[in-house]
UniProtKB/TrEMBL annotation:
Organism per entry: Marispirochaeta aestuarii
Name used for this protein in its record: Helicase XPB/Ssl2 N-terminal domain-containing protein
Lineage per the UniProt record: Bacteria, Pseudomonadati, Spirochaetota, Spirochaetia, Spirochaetales
Amino acid sequence: MPSVDDWKRTLLTLEDEPFFELIKNHLGKVQTPYHKPSIINSIEKFLLNPETRSRILALLNDDESAVTAFILRSGGSDFDHLYRYFHDSYSELRFKSLMENLQERLIIYRDESGFYFVNPVLEEELEQRTEETISVKAFPERTGEAWFTEEMMIAFLSFLQDNSSPCKQSGELKKSVRSSFIDLFPGSGDDARFMLCLESLVYLGIIHDRGDRFSVYPEQLKKFISLPGKERFTVFLAGLTAGGWRESPPRRAFAAGHTIINALRKNTSGHLGYEREPLIKLLSAELSREDQRFTPKRISQSFDRLIMAGYMEEDDGFVRFAVSANSTKAAETMPMILQPSFEVLLPPGASAAARLFAALYCRLKRYDRVSHFEIEQQHFIESLRTCGEDTDIPGLLEEACEGKTPQNVVITLQGWMERVQQIEIATGTVIKVVPELVTVIQKEFSSMILLTLAPGVYFVRPEKLSPFITKWRALGYSDPGEVRNLLSQADAEGIFDYTPRLPDIPSISTRTAPEPEETGKIVMDADKESRRIQKELIAHLNSLELTQEQRRELEAKVARKLLIFPRQLSPEVCRIGRIEARGIDFHAKLRIIEDVLDNREDLLEIESPEIPDGSALVYPLSLTKDPGDPSLTALLLPEEIEHTFKIRRASRIRKRRRSVFY
């Protein structure tokens, strides 16, 4: 983290005019001759004064505290990163003004690289002031389980094989698919739940949206099923949660979901409910330290998906990440039960082979605790064609049933497989190597080759191409270059290789939520103190003999919290020069506008019948000098609406200092 010396060096790099404008607000007029390092030491001494620190903290409002807290947790951020986090609450111009105001108040500073940091002199107090305190409350024990489970995922994959084009062009679910889904998945059947299942599998890379249909990636499903139970469950939840990043590629969305799940598992208790909004903000700030995509909106969308699926509970603004009912599973060794009638029963705790066979080669008849499937000729044949025939089907079936396979079923399946093998139309890639590398292919790549078409000419399926190229490069051979006419699953390859960050949130603290009868917000002492300070300043200001322009400028500085002690209210902190023009003084109004457009350091307060509300604070854009009748084009603040009006018709135009850091 930056040191006090780093902050001091940043102040030393300021040009003289903004430097002395800044110093004047806090220490009053600087006497010459001056020595910048000595002045900065005086500023440090001013900030170390307990009363100064107390007033600075008391005047921080909730919005300012949120920005300061984010900068503290992120360890420093540039403007673009910060604005991505807060853009839902501010226009860019308003947010920039807020950042400049915090700089002028010496709460934050910006280094030469453009990164914002909290002032190290105030850091300890600011950490205490901005610490997120999250209310918690006990939740009753769960009586049910989440409806979207890994077991349902297997059944859904089987269902999808028969309904590979489930949606209309509008994206709405087809009536026939909806009806079948409701019949086959009792208690789970509605459009939102169907889409949740579908999207989760896309983010896991297990199915692929080809535009007109969805297809299963068998290799990716095998990889998922073969993961150890606890790791697989985390991956499953990551795919579910990834919907908060639906505009991102599936692999990036999955990575984000994985990070959120690990953050929740590592930093929350399954026995407690946490205030939803503070928890979202805290996770967002922590995770955004290295990844700009973790905005509160996206995390909130991820929470909504967890709530819909049953892995998070919500009650009166509190949420509990309730995974305990599903995180401990029975040993996954149970065989699939296959009847001579081709009926299949898949019990809880089914083995990996049983789940894989049911998902790819069986037709779902009913999803339940013990799900019912059947091996049906047309479904089986279509599955062979879409999922590929390189799987050892008899071997997989033998393993799934632990050898208890009816002979009539084995013979029938063999006959169906022979029918499919009469002709095959496959999409893939032809790879050709020079004769001296044939032995390398046979030794290192035999498991990836489907067919040898001729000596040195090989056929590789799409799902094997990416591993082939990766291994080829790892062995040090020349890069094969671009592959043409390839339908690949590059997005899915390696999706589970992502290693998530496991963020610690050391600043999280909790308080027990009040009983239901205790309603209403408690007004913080800081708010009371803020009001007391501002009343004190206004009362002192009213007692001073000032010109109208001096009074207005000091009022503006008090409103912007640049002056925090009565002793700072002095004409010496006001700028010299004309800052306001009224009525028929056309040339003075024009000079003020030209000055603001030239230096871009000020805004303008304008009163004119051409402005919708009669007066406005504006950010000037351009001056059109029509002969004898010039016009100003400006943004009306805070809405930033562009507006043009005649300068002659303005009854008052006044400079208003925006920031010495602009």
